[in-house]
Amino acid sequence: MLHSGRVVFGEMEEVVFGRPAAETVAEEARRLGAERVFLMASGTLNRTTAEVAKVRRTLGNRFAGLFDQMPPHTPRRAVIEAAAAAREAGADLIVTIGGGSVTDGAKAVQLCLANDIRNAEALDQYRPVKGPDGVVGPPPCNPPTVPQVTVPTTLSAGEFSAIAGVTDERHRVKELFRHPQIIPRAVVLDPAVTVHTPEWLWLSTGIRAVDHCVEGICSGEANPYADAQALHGLALLCRGLPRVKADPNDLEARLDCQIGSWLSMGPLASGVPMGASHGIGYVLGAVFDIPHGHTSCIMLPAVMRWNKPVNAERQALVAAAMGHPGEEADDVLDAFITGLGMPRSLGAVKIGPESFARLAEQAMDTPWVPRNPRPIAGPAEVREILELAA
Fold first, then answer.
1. What strand order describes the sheet that includes 37-41?
2. For residue 37, what is the enclosing H or E element?
3. Which of 108, 138, 347, 380 has minimal Cβ neighbours within 10 Å of its Cβ?
4. How high is the mean pLDDT in each 10-residue block of the chain (390 residues)?
5. How many CB atoms lie within 10 A of CB 342?
6. What is d(CA 125, CA 100) in angstroms, rounded to the nearest whole number?
7. DSSP, res 119
8. Is domain 14-192 classified as CATH 3.40.50.1970?
9. To which CATH superfamily is domain 198-388 assigned?
10. Domain extents for the chain?
């Protein structure tokens, strides 16, 4: 049977890897003609390290302001606060230094600045809509005009997508805001900046990137372009993560992880959907405040086990890429995640069966559970997966 598909190349212009972040950010600001650079940074990174100060120094009089109060899961309230600060600073470029919540927050700030969004409720009008062709995209709105450059310090890889994950605190629901132009113009992968990232956060977000690779490879909508990136990305992550755990100062291993994380987004960038691990993970994060990386550590092997009846051949590719040809991918993933010291069950993060009904109901409303390779008709099937992860 012939393959068919469509790969859309986005608005990102550059990925710079293996070079110092501070000097590269200054070069990007000059390249983009920016005069008012607004920094959005991890608060911990800003308070306890010199990394943000280095960027400020290299920017010189281009530095226009700083926001370092973005909580995990990117709540709407904090997005509005950051947008107000960027607006007051007259920002013509946003530079982020931090993890996925900061990165996604800046993407949402781009939409707020372009459309004069000044309160959390106004974001309701910018939820994605389905077009006549069935493709989900932004509603009619002004395109972003303030570009973004991102220096990631974790491995969740949101910087490589044109999607901003933002939590609506009213309902404790993670929503995805989309616009093709909110993807960062440039991403700077500097492994030296990541040595400050807590080990649990680095390793768990590395498993989040593994989750991107694995669900992309195992999707019923996989394509050869996505496979090429996801399989190599998975191999790099599986090689790099244990080396970083053994030696946190191994910058070559850290860069392997960063490039593996970049490649892990190949499936999403080429239209391949994620599955139930991502979908259930959204609810675990928004409702129970479980870190994104930990949701993948807990859910991915269980989802693989549940999906095995329909995609065992694709799962064999995962096991081989991880260096264990002929073995069961769910067992290989379980052992790999356990070896990194990450949580492996819902019980380990204090989520018991009494929460399964709520989890299952809300997971059905996420964009990914309906695209799982083994069809999920309703909450009962989600509960089966939750019980495997209990």
1. 14-17, 186-189, 148-152, 93-98, 37-41, 63-67
2. strand 37-41
3. 380
4. 73 96 98 98 96 97 98 95 98 97 98 98 94 85 97 96 94 91 98 97 98 97 95 98 98 98 94 96 92 96 98 98 98 98 96 96 94 97 98
5. 20
6. 24
7. S
8. yes
9. Dehydroquinate synthase-like - alpha domain (1.20.1090.10)
10. 14-192, 198-388
